[in-house]
From TrEMBL:
Residues 123-402 form the Reverse transcriptase domain. SUPFAM superfamilies: DNA/RNA polymerases (SSF56672). It comes from the Eukaryota. Pfam families: RVT_1. This is Reverse transcriptase domain-containing protein. Coiled coil: none annotated.
Amino acid sequence: MLSDDLCKATIMEVNMLKQRAKLAWLKGEGTAVTAEFVNYFKKLFGGSHRHSQNLEYLQPFAKHLISEEEATQITAPVQRHEIKDALFDINEDSAPGPDGFSSSFFKATWAVIGEDVCRAIMEFFNHGRLLKQLNATLLTLIPKVQMPTKVGDFRPISCCNVIYKIITKIMVKRMQFVLEKLIDNCQNAFVPGRSISDNVLLAQELLSGYNQKKLPPRCTIKVDLQKAYDMVDWDYLLAVLRLFRFPNRFIAWVEQCITTASFSISLNGTIHGFFTSTRGLRQGDPISPYLFVLVMESLHLLIKHKIQNDDIFQHHWRCKELGIINLCFADDLLLFCKADIHSATVLHDILQNFGVLSGLHANAQKSQVLFSKSATQVQQQIQSIFGFPQGTLPVRYLGVPLITSKLSLADCAPLILKIEARIAGWNQLNLTYAGRTQLIKSVLSSIHQYWCSVFILPKGVIKTIDAKLRNFLWRGGTERGGYKVAWEQILEKKHDSIWVSWITKYKLRHGTLWAANEKKAHGYGRNYLNSEIKLIKGIRFQVGDGTDFKLWLDPWHPDGTLIHRYPHGPLVTGLPLDSPLSTVIVDGHWNWPSENHIDINEIIKNYRLFIVALLIILYGKQLGNILHERRL
């Protein structure tokens, strides 16, 4: 007993001393730490010296250059509805800028301040001048590692003022319609209509066979760009915009946005420092990702320019015809070539030149070179050219492993660990069942759905994930037990929603979705109903005994729902609107009531022809003829 009391007293004393030490640090050493953060980011954003650049020699290699008509659209006078749309497109949960006003404030008071906001924003677009106060930025530091020990372990996220965000969102909207034309298919980030999975799938295909010695020697360089957004040279960025023939007025807008920014840092709930920058793009600025994509597109053009003038360069296996050398998603860069000294030297020189021009240099510690088994003779020489360590497969790319064999349980360990980490972070929140259900649907499920877009997950992995989600739902953690409802029942569709009940009664009138009147719907509801015709072309129904289908309301017939073709059918036949299809089927044969007021024979004939045609497609013409002769 005495020893237990002594242990408790010792622990209490240690905790008290820790609290005193922390208080002393906040009062004394905390000032030194704050100064360290401010000086670090002041140096990071202020290390570039401006000088003009010209990249117009790359124009012949560009996929597209902006036309005069497109330039006119980009710089057209800004309308009030554009300003309002841009504001209401900002997430209400996004952090406010230094002025302290979030987008929800502007939305709630739009009727009062809307006109003033519009005038302020139009002033910028009309005269190209931006008040520095509007472009003030608050840096919030997010740790990049589990236990940060130095300033470099934090990622600066820029919290911009709402007025500024509206301006850049309008500019982004005007850029997006030409972005797909400008950006080559080797780059998929932030380009409308392109998917991150395309990068992963292509990289997976190119690295398949790296474990075989009989295939040609190949190498892949996985490049990590050091402090990518923070290091972009402004003059290089403006030269890239001129390269693609963005109008001078738009370029002036961009220059105002990036050069008039000022920064303060939020630490421990207080704001520290005030400094400006001479380089970099702000993470948190709506336009930054799109400008960065254009900068990375210039790397692709530099590669094309260099390769065209080099007859000795050897492409990666199965890449020459499509001209695949680089694959890029934001700052995740892969380079491909044949594993020979000259080809590796060419890519290294391009990377070095790009770094000097743009400020984006490769991080030698985090980059790596991957070799096929047939490239053992040149591995050391190529490694020495790049100065990168040799990597091994599987290697992580865009959050998933690139592998040369079938996906194993070990390969999926990062996926399971990520789900466990999310659950562990929620364990202390005392969530209700409803809250945990929502997190499973909106967060946890999306984690492995991304993997499923690229891989077919092993059954064991799916069962493990289901078990962890099940345990989190009922127990709030990953331990087993305490289930109140079968997991299969949780996954079933929910029909008891009050919204579903209202829709069923007033919109579907206790019928089915197929019989709903799209003219009476509004908003996204009309869009869903308008897709009925397209959807039904790709659907085939197995009627069976007809008990699961509504005679008039379901599209079991190739002509669609019968109620649309015969609106008075229920009245003239005496068969109620909600009659099942089995009402007119007896012992596998049609058994319709009266044929006087509705062409029943035509319905039956069309259905037979449809079935015979489908069987011919599936099983051949001979079987279709036999079934037709037997009067299916």
